[in-house]
Amino acid sequence: MMLVKRIFLSHVPSVGFYSSSAPILLKTGDILRQVRIFSDTDVTEYSKLSYDSNPLHFDSECARNAGFEDRLVPGMLVSSLFPRIIASQFPGAVYVSQTLHFKSPVYIGEEIIGEVQATSIRQMKEKYIAKFATKCFKKGGFLVIDGEAMAILPTLSTEEVQSTI
Q1: Are 146 and 55 a contacting pair, CB within 8 Å?
Q2: Nearest residue to 34 (alpha-carbon basis) of 55, 63, 60, 8
Q3: Inter-CA distances, 151 with 26, 32, 98, 154, Å
Q4: Which string of DSSP letters, residue by residue, matches 19-40?
Q5: pLDDT tens per residue across span 110-139
Q6: Terminal CA-to-CA distance of the chain, rounded, Å?
Q7: Is the separation of the CB atoms in 51 and 28 below 8 Å?
């Protein structure tokens, strides 16, 4: 299973540090990140749930014959970092929409950094509609997924969350 190595909130342009006693309010420009390494077990379990049996995810020879270095992590599994990041910081958030552009393959065992950056926030009654730029990077800052998400947040106060899956 996967262990989230680090979860943190940073403020552009500098990293912000905070204590659990003083909540941080999300504002435009803030970036939330999580790091994940997708394992063979993750890919197998995802396949069972999604019925995605593409041999590129299970057969190294097939993946190499298709021009890849090795077996691929399904793009939708990698992109699942985005709603996870938002929900871990804003329990009760409703994920409304997501666009995705797959830029480069992700291989099993690679460290991936998922990032959501608040690009606009507006209040709607007692909740907030937040739009996020969504990106995943691998080692060296290499972009693998790019997109946009929208979520309804119950609050702008972020939570410091430590979790394991």
Answers
A1: no
A2: 8
A3: 13, 14, 9, 10
A4: -TTSPPBP-TTEEEEEEEE--H
A5: 999 999 999 999 999 999 999 999 999 999
A6: 6
A7: no
Strands 142-153, 111-124: pairing kind: unpaired
Whether pLDDT at 103 is above 60:
yes
Neighbours of 35 (CB within 10 A): 17
**Phi and psi dihedrals of 44, rounded to 5?**
-65, -45
Q: What share of the chain is helix, strand, coil (3-state, %, to 5)?
A: 20, 40, 40
Tokens for 35, please give them: 């790091």
pLDDT at 17 over 90: no
* Whether the bond into 83 is cis, omega within 30 of 0: no
List b or e across 128-165, with b for residues whose CB sees 16 or more CB atoms inside 10 angstroms. bebbbebbbbbeeeeebbebbbbbebebbebeeeeeee
How far is 125 from 129, CA to CA, in rounded Å? 10
Q: What is the DSSP-derived secondary structure letter of residue 73?
A: P
**What span, in angstroms and rounded, lies between the C-alpha atoms of 150 and 30?**
15
